[in-house]
Design brief:
- The protein has 93 residues and is mainly β.
- Helix content is 0%, strand content 58%.
- It starts with 10 loop residues before the first strand and ends with a strand.
- It has a six-stranded antiparallel barrel with strand order 1-2-3-6-5-4.
- β1 and β2 form a beta hairpin.
- It is globular and about 25 Å long.
- The protein is built from no helices and six strands.
Amino acid sequence: MQVDRRRFIRHHLKCSVTVVTSQGTMSGQAQNLSGDGALICCRQPLTPRKCMDLTIKFSDGFSLEVPSEVVWYYKTNAGDEKSSYKMGVRFLR
């Protein structure tokens, strides 16, 4: 059995996100969220160690802006053009 070494529990959800970097702005969708990071689905990934301002928009109208950094990304096989990549991001404090 594989041991889960995460410090925080993952919460599965679907929220709109906005990513702002020095190169511009893009939108995507968060698929899960924890105390120290998130899984973001997007059209174009950012490279690992790329810093961003991530705004998470919850369904109740609340939004949270948090500086973040890309840890990893991969291309999915999904046919949906809006979410052809997944990125793991770490929240910076």
